Hints:
two-stranded antiparallel sheet; binds zinc ion; mainly alpha; single chain
Amino acid sequence: MSVLRLARTNPIRAKRIKLAAACRCELCGDEMPLEWLELHTYPDGESLSEQTPAMQEGSLLVLCAECHRQLHLHGITVQEQEALVRERTPSISREITALLSYRPKPYTPPSVDLEESYREASAPNHYRVAG
Ligand SMILES: [Zn+2]
Ligand SMILES: [Zn+2]
């Protein structure tokens, strides 16, 4: 799943990534309310789906709305963006990577044989009729 799609389909995880970045814009360093922060990814778009979580972590920035706007207005080189990502503390990097690697467990139904439990439930009646 790309980071962009993640932000759209999993707002809770996107929120956790912002929290992992200590609610700070990684460009201006200001602390912001969560809802003012946005996730920026490069290259922009959905092409991140084939990337590993560690690569995705290096491709995303937590930015305030204003810095995000400015960044797109003036453009940013991959090198500049990578330099910003490198300023991240190791603990923040680890936490974001962990959030990106998280896959929800597939739902496994309880191993109950429905026919078996139906037979058990109806057995007393059966015996009453027989006796
Ligand atoms: Zn900012
Ligand atoms: Zn962006």
